[in-house]
User: What shape does this take?
Amino acid sequence: MEGKRPIIAVDAMGGDFGPSVVVPGAITASRENDLHVLLVGDTPRVEAELEKLSLDGASYEIVHASDVVHMNEKPSDILRRKKDASIQVACRLVRDGGADGVVSAGHSGAAVACGMFIMGRLPGVERPALATLLPTEKKPVVVLDVGANVDCRPYHLFQFGLMGDAFARDLLGYEAPRVSLLSIGEEEGKGNSQVKEAYELLKMAQNLNFIGNAEGRDIFTGDVDVVVCDGFVGNVVVKMSEGLASSLTRMLRKLLTSGLLPTLGALLAKSAFKKFARKVDYSEYGGAPLLGLQGLAIVGHGRSNAKAITAAIKMGGTFVRKGTNARLAETILANEELTRFSKAL
Amino acid sequence: MEGKRPIIAVDAMGGDFGPSVVVPGAITASRENDLHVLLVGDTPRVEAELEKLSLDGASYEIVHASDVVHMNEKPSDILRRKKDASIQVACRLVRDGGADGVVSAGHSGAAVACGMFIMGRLPGVERPALATLLPTEKKPVVVLDVGANVDCRPYHLFQFGLMGDAFARDLLGYEAPRVSLLSIGEEEGKGNSQVKEAYELLKMAQNLNFIGNAEGRDIFTGDVDVVVCDGFVGNVVVKMSEGLASSLTRMLRKLLTSGLLPTLGALLAKSAFKKFARKVDYSEYGGAPLLGLQGLAIVGHGRSNAKAITAAIKMGGTFVRKGTNARLAETILANEELTRFSKAL
Assistant: This one.
């Protein structure tokens, strides 16, 4: 391991299952990746979970937070009124230099809002973007934005491309990630007005391997590494891919196990479906980083299990060790003129 | 069969395969559904295809068109310069009362442009919308718009909902189709600015079973009947569902046929995959109607085979026999005040 040991503040109260999955997930990540984890939450509840675990080789401490957020609360209300919520306390730790990053399994709206407004943006970043990894036939693809920005201007999409590039280089190890713009035709000049202008900007970007438009059918072939879209479209894409994968699997399983040799068919199918489920299992990747912040925030799925929490925290560790934020800030600044030009239009 | 026999003008030169698949597809549709088909295209080439077929029970005539369009031509150029292209001649037949509808397997951009500008819109319709059927775990779902309108205003989405409702009632036989608005959260108030305003309009619509927002994951469960979105998002959804279904099928097939008992596994899998392919086979539905026109236009997939052409023409016949356009015009007019109100905002 290079450099100093990353410190990750973990929202112990986050997600659908709270400390019961977050605490073991964090301890495993600390042990396996040499990270220091700050377990932010209600001390007695966190301690109760720690008591159940073997803590050998783990590096952790508890940071008390007296409040939790509920799924039905509005992000803006949480931000204004719940100063002692675990997600707010965790974000302030990052802002004040006590941690390098924060990991939360949600309330995802609250995590995004607290990340944006408590930690703040990197210089030159117009809008932080939520990036996620989706499985493909080959290596995973980075899709961004997937929900942080539903109404976008062309220069927002442009910056999403720059940030997605930095993420794919460091986290997936691509030399020159193939960055694409999601549109409705491959040719330049296809798309809505926002996408057409973003195309022009991406084409002129410094240090970017922009390969042009991608269509919906290109997302899962593994032939593009980064897919840029606004947060509305990205959110539809992510939720649809989850939904369609489940629906297709159910349809196919039903067909496979209702044939002439149902038992044998079911047996054969079982192991294949297991492997398949692993391949399309989003918990493998753990979480979606909110790119463009001062510091690092990773938002996990609300339904995260301990394995997903571990994966999200490990992603945070890699992010810190590779200095992804420095690279990201650099590429944003190198392209500042283009951004400013587009804003002035 | 009720009423007079529908007359469908078929773009014999359309699609990737032209007369060789369109002519047999049209003859089959005529015979099986008691339709009169006008085969619009190059007379010698159409005649050559007819000679290969048994024509018993079919009702057809040839309408000569001396020009064809090519895939790389711009719709606007085709519209302006290719007055004798088969798609233009076919659309003029509908406009002038010689046919009830036109079916073309593309150039789809040209078909949409010619439909809109030659045939014209129904009174009160702001923007015609391309509607498609996607397979789900239960009955198919209507998605619109899927590419005719990439930059939409809220009242466009509103009218798409009204037109999708008319289509689902008549073509799928739903009593009160469950109409939903594609967004990024189920609750009212989720979405981008355009969707939030469209929600308000749909909620107030006359004679519409609007059930609220649907998320990407809800499209394929079969629990909604109509999904409303702008043409950019809809096009991404349709292409992504094609792409993801292919990718998942390839991934799963590979896993299923590489197990302990590869031959047996492959055998068992083969018939299941065949049934599965049929279930997600877009050619079952044939084509996407462009809703809101004076007359009827159905745009088929460029890769349409004869079966898909037959299905598209049959859809046209049902459309005419059920009087879907009259119902559509009625619901548009019943909601004209809301549309005008939103336009004035």
The CA atoms of residues 134 and 140 of chain A lie 5 Å apart. Chain A is about 50% helix and 15% strand. The longest strand of chain A covers residues 36-41. Chain A touches chain B through 57 residues (CB under 8 Å).
